[in-house]
Design a protein that fits this description.
The chain has 3 domains: 13-56, no CATH class; 68-169 and 303-330, Response regulator (Rossmann fold, 3-Layer(aba) Sandwich), CATH 3.40.50.2300; 171-301 and 334-340, Rossmann fold, CATH 3.40.50. The protein contains 12 helices and 12 strands. It has helices at residues 13-20, 24-31, 39-52, 58-65, 81-96, 110-122, 143-147, 171-184, 200-215, 232-243, 257-269, 303-320; strands at residues 70-75, 100-105, 127-130, 152-155, 165-169, 190-194, 225-227, 251-254, 279-283, 297-300, 326-330, 333-335.
Length: 343
């Protein structure tokens, strides 16, 4: 069989052409499924290309087609269950529709998010899916995609200043539901560790928490509502502060899945029994919530369905050549476990 005739040892369309005794232009057209090439020739060319180990130059192909069949994804964290599920949903839909996926992680840094948008722009992605960092206020770094008519879909933490589909849950309702659940099992002094209130997601959650207290004629103590970046230290500091108060909270709404786990750990370290001394529920669910002791109640956010929906809506925009703004609301679910079980 033909050996590569270039110094890098890479197989080219010339090698395939030589093997089949046809022109390089015919090989190129066959590999790109040109309608002028017969199915029999396409099959022969692709078979030999596979046998020789030929790899299509995606960059060159994209330049000729003005299309890469690549979807970019920028998310804050890959490790959490919510984002892992969202990525799984995105990849599932993208691959079934003939798209490859490039994933970047911002690590909750707006500067990294800005750099990642540059990477996606350089990669000439056909569309972008993003969940903003907690730091992001100015979203002008996404404007380049609008100028190039590259659609952008956002999920969970979104900006309505950027055109395109938005896949969200009702965060106000999520916090209201969690707080109301604690009230229904008898909690009277309920604390909430919120994320940055400059983020619409966490602002809505704080408002839902406050409304549940107001509706049930319960006081909002100043030190019970804390805003933070939801880091490990933030969760531990909040728990230590609450448990040092003369009137300790008997219920806590954690602003995220990870902060719920951290608060549970910190409370246990301080000798707090759950749910006997204090009940706990988190806004977001992790796999370990069900198997830890006590098992941790949560509001489940449908990461998989949000990812699927973001990819479906983005691909519709790519194929139609439009980027209309739309809002798709996904349902949430209350998962009652032992950390907030009525004794």
């Amino acid at each position: 069989m033909t050996k590569p005739n270039n110094k890098k040892g890479e197989i080219t369309i010339n090698d395939i052409a030589k093997e089949l005794n046809i022109s390089p232009s015919t090989v190129s057209r066959a590999l790109n499924d040109n309608v002028k090439i017969s199915e029999a020739t396409k099959e022969k060319v692709k078979k030999v290309a596979q046998e020789l180990g030929y790899e299509l130059n995606l960059v060159a192909s994209s330049l000729s087609k003005n299309k890469t069949n690549i979807i970019g994804v920028i998310i804050p964290h890959i490790g959490s269950q919510f984002f892992a599920q969202a990525l799984s949903g995105i990849q599932e839909v993208a691959q079934s529709s003939g798209y490859n996926v490039i994933i970047c992680q911002s690590n909750e840094s707006v500067q990294q998010e800005i750099e990642m948008t540059k990477v996606m722009n350089s990669a000439r992605v056909d569309g972008l899916i993003s969940c903003l960092t907690m730091e992001t206020k100015d979203v002008s770094h996404f404007n380049v995609f609008e100028k190039k008519h590259t659609p952008v879909a956002m999920f969970d933490r979104v900006s309505y200043a950027i055109p395109g589909p938005k896949i969200v849950v009702d965060n106000y309702e999520a916090a209201y539901m969690a707080t109301e659940h604690l009230i229904n099992i008898g909690c009277k002094r309920i604390a909430h560790l919120a994320g940055s209130l400059s983020s619409k997601v966490f602002e809505d959650r704080a408002e839902g928490y406050k409304y549940a207290l107001q509706k049930n004629n319960l006081p909002l103590f100043p030190q019970y509502l804390l805003s933070s970046d939801l880091t490990e230290q933030d969760a531990r500091d909040a728990t230590k502060l609450w448990m040092s108060l003369p009137e300790k909270p008997d219920g806590i709404v954690a602003g995220s899945a990870s902060s719920g786990l951290l608060i549970a750990s910190a409370a246990k370290g301080l000798g707090v029994r759950m749910p006997e001394d204090c009940s706990l529920i988190s806004l977001g669910n992790e796999r370990c919530n069900e198997i830890m002791t006590p098992s941790l109640s949560a509001i489940d956010m449908p990461g998989l369905e949000m990812g699927r929906s973001a990819a479906k809506q983005l691909i519709k925009c790519i194929k139609s050549g439009t980027s209309k703004s739309s809002i798709i609301l996904k349902p949430i679910q209350l998962l009652i476990r032992n950390s907030s079980f009525k004794i």
